[in-house]
Design goal:
The complex is a heterodimer. Chain A is mainly α. Chain A is built from 21 helices and five strands. Chain A has a five-stranded mixed beta sheet, sandwiched between helices. Chain A is globular. In chain B, 78% of the residues lie in helices and 0% in strands. Chain B is built from 18 helices and no strands. In chain B, helix 11 runs antiparallel to helix 17, helix 13 packs antiparallel against helix 15 and helix 16 runs antiparallel to helix 17. The longest helix of chain B is centred in the last third of the chain and has 38 residues. The chains are: A mainly alpha, B mainly alpha. The interface between A and B is medium-sized, with 24 and 23 residues.
Chain lengths: 498, 496
């Protein structure tokens, strides 16, 4: 399972690099590395990559929000947009007749003069090797790998989410990418291409987005420090601080959330401000679109910008050093805020085994040929793959007497039905952010009956007990129900319909 | 001065004309100097122009002209396998592909058929282009070599495509492995069938195609109905037999025509071939993509509830299949029109002089307008026949979407008109313009169909076909008009 998770993570990483870095780099105008550029303290290519990252992010954000409004944020649309953007450059060159003089001689050479072609390929490979063989490129690659290892560790072990709103976000994202009604959310719109490009479910995208955004954030903050200090050591110090901070911080700090996404664009705004104010404003706009209520990052950004402008203009040595110090402190504060600021109160929303069993069912059973009967959380893992029935609906629709009748058949049309029942009902939900419902008279008289069943410890206990009782009764009088999975926390029953 | 190997010859119009002819025959200034003792080619021409202009012209003997209805039926010959499959399916309920299949198997076969057409479309164009080129020059060894090389290249490409599709399928989990294997096997078989039948078309072997198709269908029907083999297995065996029969006939025909050792004949360098043939290849791929794009768009719309991300919709497919009869009738005329075009050009060439080029343009313009009128009449007639057929057969009407049939019938005349224009563009060696028109048509088809099918119901994808066909017809017609307005120049450039 870990190997498969690692593979899925690589898919998400590849899709992220493709949509946010490769497509804007190949489809954009001009080259990323300009040998004549001596500005930006030698980090011109990195800044240009960041600019294109911001442009791509803004295009994706606005595009997906608009498409989502018309329920058209579908894989076909997003893939076509990527392809169109990629072929934009060659199309322009073709229409204007540029590049023809170089293209055909190259083809003739490659097809008819094998030796020359091999020499040409060898020369290009040597240039590429020289680029990656630089000490700094190697150090940055090592930092990325260490960061990846540090931030991947928790998500490879945990399938479930620590916060209830992630389950809602996963369902919302899945609805967006399947052309279903969704609640507009800037943070999720940015992830829509990853769902389409990877073919993975929305829950996996949320799960693996955390580490990827963490790496992106650390690299941008390190770039910010490098620009201000004009020293590679500053980059190394910030990276090392990030790695230490990530190792010390609780695992849930790397779980995806809108503030994490917004933090990247705040940091990008700080880096881009001295270079291009328009792009910096666009990055800040993106951050606001993603998480409008986050204010702490604005304070960090202000400090960073102040330090950067003082560093650029200060003529006295001590003032410059002070400004650099402020910048360094702002970078450290940003990392601390990023890793520890979000590790608030989290609790058990879903058992890990329940999430893993869902993942396994999704992998092994054919699409739309099965039903999961469970609490809401499992829907985040099954949305778009098959059907889901709320456990509360199952409990309220049928009776134990019906279950004991050997002639009774559950009215589900799919060949396989899975029932998720908690042996020890999850009771920590009320402590992790969802306000406890206030009942006017009694739970039974309240209109919000399902909230009572899922979020109130008493309701959850009664729901799970009732479900277990009904399935046990059904199993005693029918042969088509078997135990699919069992541990100390959950039971998963499997109904095979002939 | 008249070359003995040329049956058609006209005296030069002026000094410049003679210089051009001499240089075209390889008599450059250095040759004129070294072999004929003149200072340059101009001096040589000046010395001989009066003699050359006094020569009598040599006209070509009156060629045998086939009746127009024969050309018309020859134009429809490409539909022979399809018509035979339909007849066999009606009689035995078994075709070379398709038939009474389960939902998922139907999806696999549908994808395989479309993938085979799209993947081989470019290669079939290349086979046709190169094959006819060598055939007209009676270079049978080269013809055989180029045809079989294209088939081998296509086979290698198909294997790569299947490998890539396997990786993509493993990545996106579109089809279960068994279904994918079935799809891949059918794709390879149908592709081989199409490729080798492409060689037989070059060799005018329509009868051999009919025989091979009938044999394959009969064998698959016998295996399914008598031996009780599974239908898909029977069809794969039938397809393999048809391919083997086609290959045998094709090779036999090449040997009869004098090609005994095609392997030893060198083809032009691959870079040059690629440079010459890529527009034809791209056109073939785009054209088949255009024909099937609306099906793919319709079958992938609103599939949230289906077991696979692609759902075969029989009523949509049946409506388009029935409309294909109108298309075949209309396309048959294109071949006849093209034969007529060459005849008119040939006649006009005999009459033309450098001074009355306007007459040539006017004649060609009138010919184009007249042929468009004939096509319009044929479209109305064929559409009426198909509509009448659907309305008079309630059993047929019950299994298709009437709205799709009507909308497809509205788009097919535009597709036929576009093909007519594209045939003219190919005749005048302007394949890039054909590629541009087809690419825009495909883009319009996919984008319109995708949006409409996702916003409304899946059958609106057929409007994409209509819009795409209209786009292709308008762009290709505009290109044609532009070329016909300067026909003399473009014809000379194409001949050069």
């Amino acid at each position: 399972m870990t190997a498969l998770s690692l593979l899925d993570c690589l898919r998400v990483l590849a899709a992220f690099c493709f949509a946010f870095l490769l497509v804007p780099a190949l489809g954009g105008e001009g080259r990323v590395s300009d040998p004549d550029d001596v500005s930006s303290a030698g980090c011109g290519p990195a800044v240009r990559v960041l600019q294109r990252f911001i442009h791509a992010s803004l295009a994706i954000e606005v595009g997906c929000l608009l498409l989502g409004h018309f329920r058209l944020c579908l894989p076909g649309m997003l893939l076509s947009a990527c392809v169109l953007f990629l072929v934009r450059g060659p199309l322009r060159a073709g229409l204007s007749g540029q590049g023809q003089d170089e293209f055909w001689p190259f083809v003739f050479g490659a097809l008819e003069d094998r030796r020359a072609a091999a020499a040409q390929i060898r020369a290009r490979a040597a240039r590429l090797y020289m680029f990656f063989n630089q000490r700094r490129a190697g150090v940055i690659a090592a930092i990325v790998l260490i960061l990846l290892a540090a931030s991947l560790r928790p998500v490879l072990r945990h399938f479930h989410f620590a916060y209830p709103d992630r389950y809602v976000a996963a369902v919302n994202l899945a609805a967006l990418t399947q052309g279903q009604p969704w609640k507009a959310d800037g943070a999720l719109a940015l992830l829509a291409p990853l769902v389409s490009l990877t073919g993975l479910d929305a829950a996996s995208i949320l799960r693996f987005s955390g580490p990827i955004f963490t790496i992106a954030f650390v690299l941008i903050v390190a770039l910010c420090a490098y620009r201000t200090w004009e020293s590679f050591v500053a980059l190394l110090v910030i990276s090392a601080a990030s790695i230490i901070s990530l190792s010390v911080a609780p695992a849930i700090s790397q779980e995806w959330n809108p503030a994490m996404e917004a933090a990247i664009y705040w940091a990008a705004a700080a880096v881009l401000w001295p270079e291009c104010r328009l792009d910096a404003c666009l990055a800040a706009l993106l951050a606001v679109m993603i998480d409008p209520v986050e204010w702490r990052w604005a304070a960090v950004l202000a400090a960073t910008l102040f330090a950067a402008s003082v560093t650029a203009r200060a003529s006295r040595g001590w003032l410059k050093h002070a400004a650099r110090l402020v910048n360094g402190m702002a970078c450290i504060a940003a990392i601390a805020l990023f890793t520890c600021g979000r590790a608030g109160s989290a609790g058990l929303v879903q058992y890990e085994s329940a999430a893993r069993v869902c993942e396994s069912i999704v992998r092994h059973f054919p699409r739309n040929q099965w039903i999961v009967v469970s609490p809401f959380q499992e829907l985040a893992f099954t949305y778009g793959h098959a059907w889901h029935v709320e456990l509360s609906e199952f409990v309220s629709e049928f009776t134990v007497d019906q279950m004991t009748d050997p002639r009774f058949r559950l009215p589900y049309q799919c060949p396989d039905v899975f029932f998720f029942v908690e042996r020890r009902p999850v009771t920590a939900i009320a402590a992790v952010g969802i306000p406890k419902p206030v009942w006017r008279y009694s739970p039974a008289e309240s209109a919000d009956w399902s909230s009572f069943l899922y979020t109130d410890p008493l309701g959850r206990d009664s729901l799970e007990y009732r479900a277990g009782q009904m399935l046990a009764a059904y199993g005693r009088h029918h042969k088509d129900l078997s135990l699919f999975y069992a541990d100390d926390d959950i039971l998963v029953f499997h109904l095979v319909r002939s | 001065l008249r070359p003995p190997d040329r049956p058609v010859w006209a005296p030069p119009l002026e000094l410049e004309d003679l210089v051009v002819r001499l240089e075209a025959d390889g008599v450059t200034s250095s040759v004129a100097r070294s072999e004929y003792g003149f200072a340059d080619v101009w001096k040589l021409a000046e010395a001989h122009v009066s003699v050359a202009m006094a020569q009598a012209p040599a006209n070509a003997p009156q060629e045998h002209r086939a009746a127009p209805w024969k050309d018309f039926f020859k134009g429809m010959a490409f539909a022979t396998p399809m018509l035979l499959c339909c007849v066999m399916a009606l009689v035995f309920k078994v075709g070379l592909w398709g038939g009474p299949l389960s939902g998922n198997e139907a999806v696999a076969v549908a994808i395989a058929a479309i993938a085979a057409f799209v993947a081989t479309g470019g290669f079939i164009q290349v086979i046709g282009r190169q094959g006819h080129f060598y055939k007209h020059g009676q270079q049978w060894a080269l013809c055989a070599r180029s045809c079989w090389s294209a088939v081998l290249l296509a086979a290698a490409t198909l294997l790569m495509i299947v490998g890539f599709a396997f990786a993509a399928n493993a990545y996106f989990q579109w089809l279960p492995l068994r279904l994918f294997a079935l799809c891949a096997a059918f794709t390879l078989c149908i592709a081989a069938y199409l490729l080798v039948s492409g060689i037989l078309y070059v060799l005018d072997g329509e009868l051999m195609i009919a025989f091979g198709t009938l044999l394959g269908t009969a064998v698959s029907a016998a295996l399914f109905l008598i031996v009780k083999l599974p239908l898909l297995v029977s069809q794969i065996i039938g397809l393999a037999l048809a391919v083997a029969t086609f290959s045998f006939f094709a090779q036999l025909r090449f040997i009869q025509l004098g090609s005994r050792a095609p392997i030893k004949v060198p083809l032009p360098p691959p870079g040059r071939l690629l440079f010459m043939l890529w527009p034809y290849f791209v056109y073939g791929t785009l054209y088949y993509s255009f024909l099937f794009a609306d099906r793919i768009v319709a079958w992938t719309a609103h599939t949230q509830l289906s077991a696979l991300p692609l759902q075969f919709r029989g009523e949509y497919e049946t409506a388009l299949d029935v409309c294909l009869f109108a298309f075949v009738l209309q396309v048959g005329w294109i071949h006849a029109g093209l034969v007529r075009f060459y005849r008119i050009v040939s006649d006009e060439q005999r009459r033309i002089s450098i001074r009355n080029r306007k007459n040539l343009r006017r004649t060609l313009g009138r010919f184009y307008a007249r042929q468009t009128g004939v096509l319009g009449t044929l479209c109305i007639a064929s559409t009426s026949i198909v509509l009448w057929g659907i309305n008079s057969l309630p059993a047929l009407k019950a299994i298709l979407l009437f709205r799709v049939a009507v909308l497809a019938l509205a788009g097919i005349p535009f597709a036929a008109a576009a093909l007519w224009n594209i045939a003219l563009l190919f005749a005048l060696s302007r394949p890039i313009l054909a590629v541009v028109a087809t690419a825009w048509g495909l883009a319009a088809n996919v984008s319109t169909g995708y949006l409409l099918s996702r916003l409304f119901t899946y059958d609106y994808a057929v409007i994409g076909f209509d819009v795409g066909a209209l786009t292709m017809a308008v762009i290709s017609a505009w290109s044609c008009r532009r070329i016909l307005s300067k026909f003399d120049y473009h014809f000379f450039a194409a001949a050069a």
